[in-house]
Amino acid sequence: MTVDFETAADPFRRELLAHCYRMLGSLHDAEDLVQETYLRAWKSYGKFEGRSSVRTWLYRIATNVCLTALDSRAKRPLPFDLSGSASEHDPLTQDHEIPWLEPIPTDPAAIVTERESTRLAFVAALQHLPPRQRAVLILRDVLRLSAAETADELDMTVAAVNSALQRAHAQLEDLTEDQVVEPADAKPLLDRWVTAFEAKDIPAIIGMFAEDVVWEMPPYPQWYRGPDMVAWHLANQCPAVPHGARMIGTEANGQPAYGLYLREEDGVFRPFNLQVLEVRGDRITRVSSFFDLTLFAKFGLPSTV
Fold it and tell me: Are 206 and 227 in contact (CB under 8 A)?
């Protein structure tokens, strides 16, 4: 019996979104490219001969759709990737010309390996690779395809795949996967984070930081390193006032995240930014605050509190 396209293809939609996100570094772009993938697959499903699984066939289409899209798109960085850390003398300015890396909601059903392969540091590092190297590394290391399967997906030779993977590993050799801490393990720390941030208790906030903590805020290119500089930023540049903020927990890129709301003159708390935290042990090592307020709806966060 012939299985209809929707029944055969729909179970893979979420993992294809994660795949396109790793390739592009953008939730919005990934959603568009998954739609393009399914449109192309639907049009050609009648010619699908079943020589590979439907999943492998869809990944081949999605990867090629992503590679085509990357021909006309710049890489998506985080502020940390662009320059040295800022000081008190650097003005805080926004740059909307840069296509910044975006966070993605974590799939609650995702296995641990998938959550690790979408964390911000990993996806940001992928953006430094040429598109085809990026695809090879994802197909080999994340999806665990063989060199032969990867070569078939990308119309490359096995030797070319192995060479591209070796070069990708060399460029990413400093990136480690052993610093991921699941949100449940960090719950006491995160509870203190919410309490301290809503009260704007700066000593309590910086007391949770690692010595090399990074604080970044796309679309602001400026970023800060170390508890003292973050404390200066919060005291002098953050508009929140004590007990004038509310935080709603979510999860992004397999990491704890919070929608931050500030109280406005009418007493209503409205979105300010989306914080994504990186935790190592009992310390917060990085806070990436995204000021793209369209992300609140993508994460199922309310428009007001």
Answer: yes
- Domain boundaries 81-128+172-305, CATH class: alpha beta
Q: Counting Cβ atoms within 10 Å, is residue 3 exposed (0-12), middle (13-18) or buried (19+)?
A: exposed
Which range has the worst mean pLDDT, 43-57, 97-111, 134-148? 43-57
Q: Which pTM does this prediction carry?
A: 0.92
What is the SS3 assignment for 272?
Answer: strand
Q: How many CB atoms lie within 10 A of CB 97?
A: 7
CB within 8 Å of 20: residues ≥ 6 apart:
29, 30, 33, 34, 37, 62, 65, 66
CA distance 55 to 184: 31
Decide: 274 and 261 in contact? Cβ < 8 Å. Answer: no
Question: Residue by residue, what is the 3-state secondary structure of 197-258?
Answer: HHCCCHHHHHCCEEEEEEEEECCEEEEEECHHHHHHHHHHCCCCCCCCEEEEEEEECCEEEE
Domain boundaries, the chain: 81-128+172-305
Q: What is the pLDDT of residues 263-272, one digit of tens each?
A: 999 999 999 9
Q: Is the pLDDT of residue 17 over 70?
A: yes
